[in-house]
Automatic annotation (TrEMBL):
GO cellular component: plasma membrane
PANTHER family (alphabetical): FERRIC ENTEROBACTIN TRANSPORT PROTEIN FEPE, TYROSINE-PROTEIN KINASE
Name of the featured protein: Capsular exopolysaccharide family
Keywords from the UniProt entry: ATP-binding, Cell membrane, Membrane, Nucleotide-binding, Transmembrane, Transmembrane helix
Amino acid sequence: MDVLGYLRLVRRHWWIVLVTVMLALGTAALVTVRTAPRYEASVTFFVTTPSQGVTDAYQGGLFLQQRVKSYGDLLTSDRLAQSVVAEAPLGLTADQVRNRITTVATTGTVLLKATITDTDQTRALKTTETLAAKFTELVRKVETPPDGKSPPIKIEVVSGPRVTSSPVSPQPVRNLVLGGLLGLLAGAALAVLRGLADVRMRDAAALQRVTGSPLLGEIPFESGAKAAPLIVGDAANSPRAEAVRKLRTNLRFVDVHEPARVIAVTSALQGEGKTTMACNTAIALAEAGWRVLLIDADLRRPKVADYLGLDGGVGLTDVLVGDVQVGDVVQRWGEKSLLVLPSGAAPPNPSELLGSKAMADLLVALRESADIVVIDTAPLLAVTDGVVVAVQADGALLVTQQGRTSRSQVAAAAHALSSVSVRLLGCVLNMAKVAKADAYQYEAYKVVVPAAPSVPTDRAGTRRGGQPAVGDRTQELTRLSR
C-alpha cells in the first residue's frame, strides 16, 4: 500500500484519531495540573590557575578543561552532599540533595554550571548557596599541595546563586503540544491498523481485485433510497439514477462481440441491494428503448412485485409447474417497455424447480421474446438457487454493498460462479460513499426535467399501474401462451 492508501485509511477512521488526540490532551492537562511546580537555582563557576607552574597557554587550557570535567563529578559526589546537609538544615538527606544537582560543563571553556531543582523556591536557593560555598572550600582543600603552597587551581563564582522567579516545570503549553502530537501519531497508527485489519469491502478497487472482474457501476448511497428504492419520479434525476444509467451503458458494452441478453443479478449475502439493482437496471434499460423482461427468480424471498407495486401471487413458479402459460402472468409495468414475471407461489423445492428442464426451456423461449432478460436471483452464499439460475444465463452481475460484505465472502461468491463456469460480466459496488466533488459536478450538470403529471404510488414511493399484459403483450409472449 502506498502513502495515499495509508492517508485514506486515516481519513476513513478519522474518529479514532480525534478520540486519541482528545485523550492525549486530557492526559497531558491532568499531568500538568497534578505535577507540583519546580524551581531552578543555579550557580556558575570559573576555573582558573594562578600558579606559575603551567606556563604554556595551550597546555594550561587543556589541563583546566580536564579539571572542569572532574569537578562536575565532584559536585554530585556523596562527600559534597553530606557536607551541604551538615552545613544547613534543609530537611533533605544527602541522597536527595545529590539527586537534585545537575552539572553542565561548557565544551571548550573552563565554565562549570551547577543547577538544583526543587519544589521549594527558598530551599532551592539556600541549597545552591551552601553548595557553592562547600564546593569552593572542598576544591581548595583537594588542590592545596601538602607543603601548604598556593593551590594550582582556583574556583570563582561568576554567576549566581540565583533562583527562577517562575516554575520551570510543568510547562502547560509544551505538555499540551507534545500530548497532542503524540495523540495524533498514536491515532494515525491505530487508524491504519484498524484499516488494515478491516476485511470488509471498502472501495471499488478492492472489489475489482477480489472478483477479478471489471467494475460496471458504483451506486452512491442516498438516505432516501430505502423509502423510494426505484429510480422513478424525483429519484430519476438523482446521482443514484445517473449511476444506474452508467451501469446500463457499461453492461451493454462489456463484451461487444458476445453481448449478454440474459443477465442474472445476484450478491454474496442477503440485503446488499441485488433486487433493487435488478429492478433499476431493468427500468434503465427500458428507458433506453429495449424490450426488457424482469424475472423474479428469488423464490425464497421474492421482492420484485412489492417494489414495483404488482401482484406477485401468480408467476414463475406456476409457469414452471405447468399451471399457467407465461403470457397470462407477465405484467407490464408503467409506461415503459418493461415486462415483469413475478415469482408466484413459494415452492417447497426452489432449487430443483429453478434447475429443471422447464426453467431451461422457459429461458430459451423468453430469450426470443425480449431484447434483454434480467433475472433477480437468491444470494450465492445462502443457498444454491443463485448459482443454478446463473448457469442458465448469459452472465451474472455481482452486487456488493460497501462496508458490509467481507473480502472473503465476495471472493467465495465469485468462486461459486467460476467453479461452474458462469461468466461474471462484472461487479457493482452498491451504497458507495461518493466524494463531495463528484456529487457537486452532477448537481451542476444535471438536466432539469419539467414536472410530470402525478402518478399513484405505493407506500414505497414506486409507481403503480402494473397490469396483465393481455392484449398489449408482444407477439412472442402471445405465441408462448398458446
